[in-house]
Amino acid sequence: MELEDGEADYADGLAELESLKEPTLYTLDRDSNSGYVSYENDIVIVSSIANAFPVFFALIAALVCITTMTRMVNEERTQIGTLKALGYGEGTVSQKYILYAGSAAALGSVAGYFLGSFLLPQVIWMAYDISYGFADLEYYFSPAMFTGGLLIALVGSVGVTMWACRREFLDNPAELIRPKAPSGGKRILLERFTPFWKRLSFLNKVTIRNTFRYKRRMVMMLVGIGGCTALLVTGYGIKDSVANLLNYQYDEIMLYDGAVTLGDDLSDGEYAAVTELMAQEAEQYALGYESSETISSATGEKEATVIALSPEDTEGLFDLHDGNEAISWPEGGEAVLTAKLADKLGVQVGDSVTVPLTDGAEVSVTVTGICDNFLNHYIYLSTETAGEAVNAAYYRTADDDSAAALATALRNLDGVTYVSLSAEERALMEASMSSLNYVVLLVVVCAGALAFIVLYNLTNINIMERMREVATLKVLGFHTGETASYVLRENIILSVLGGVLGLGLGKLLHWYAMEQVQVDAMSFEVRVAGVSYLYSFVLTVVFTLVANFSMRFKLDQINMAESLKSVE
Questions:
Q1: Cβ of 409: how many Cβ atoms within 10 Å?
Q2: Per-residue pLDDT reduced to its tens digit, 281-334
Q3: How far, in Å, CA of 213 to CA of 208, rounded?
Q4: Which of 340, 338, 375 minimizes the C-alpha distance to 246?
Q5: Which helix (H) or strand (E) holds 332?
Q6: Structure pTM?
Q7: CA dist., res. 337 & res. 517, Å (int)
Q8: Residue 452 vs residues 211, 233, 277, 539: alpha-carbon distances, Å
Q9: Is the distance from CB of 190 to CB of 211 less than 8 angstroms?
Q10: Which of 107, 139, 447, 481 has the most Cβ atoms closer than 10 angstroms to its Cβ?
């Protein structure tokens, strides 16, 4: 009895097995796997930042080196004059400063190389590990990069030091022993606007005059602060250009909520079941043709997704446009290409391209439009061009929950091989894009550190050069707040001017950085949001206020009696 029951179960199992369809296997290479493509896109974005930003950081570091070594040589001009008067040669006197600058450059290069090779990659990897997390980070140390960075630092710092020493050696020992005369004040352009100038207080007039009195320091601060602001604008701009492409793609171009892939051997009954479910649950749907094919032109070829629909069915599902100009869905024998695909193929409106179809046929179509697109490559045809084949459907529902419920129902139907939801694809891309926030934060921290260093060095030089002036103010009864305002308000003025300069410079740097971002499956709108300019400018001012606060202690430490002593 048990044997008979077992044989019956076995027969039922065989019958059920025979009724199952053969599974369809999909083999994805690296160019087709969505996870790998997304990871590759993120690498290209980070790489573009890595290519553009070091130049700016190097320039600002050179600026700091120039100001530091120039200040050091100027402060010790009395010693230099004394040594020259005692018969020491210029080379011997310069050795002290060259060794100081060279050793600082060497130590800084070694520390910076290993710190940068360990810390920065780890921070970026931790950010992207949230989305990927498939492997441990492997560190790579480039001897060429280390040697190049060390040589640049040594040549730059030593060269600047030799130049600063050479300038002092032009004076004779008697002039060097005496302190350098301060720069003379001059009338400035604002004084010619009499109604405005007359309404300023005395301290405000003095502050504005002193701001433009020391031309070299003013230029250095404008360049340094402008460079830091430019880095901030670029960092925020990259985020603006990349993060919003999902909104452009899914809110303005591909308006459907879900896409359905149907089997090639779809029966009439299976087709009827799909259309009946769509008619019941979807607010709008369209049946058409979709395949991935290699599109050819007279100048090249490129793989793209072919989508063929009837023009009357696309309303509300697709919105083809070029900027604000709407593009009609193509008719028979016509095609609309996405912008990057047209660029890869080297075609324009009026040219012809060849499109293979799944039945082995090839059709030649005329390009009637080139539309905006930000993810992947598409060529749009009419069903009249593609033929009667139906293997895809697109639909819209009331909301995401309805779209997900319909997707579940479609997956249970025979003849449906794959259902994709726009909300799910968008969420996957957003998770990847969110890691970009950490990269922007890293840029903000580095730019803030550079801004603080520039401000601290230049303000310190300003105070050291004007110690007698500051001491005189304190003797005359200026309290701490007034003294700090008299000296440090110049930083705020120059930071505001440098910030404004940096906004324009940042736009150019952002454009250059985005030009380096060449991702095959993505197109970016090069843009910087207005709020990003505001954030960059406000952060620049905040960095200035922090530097000013730290320098107040320097002013408090000035000894009035020592500073006012005669140097004769």
A1: 15
A2: 888 888 888 888 888 888 888 888 889 888 888 888 899 988 888 898 998 888
A3: 9
A4: 375
A5: none
A6: 0.72
A7: 22
A8: 19, 17, 64, 11
A9: no
A10: 447
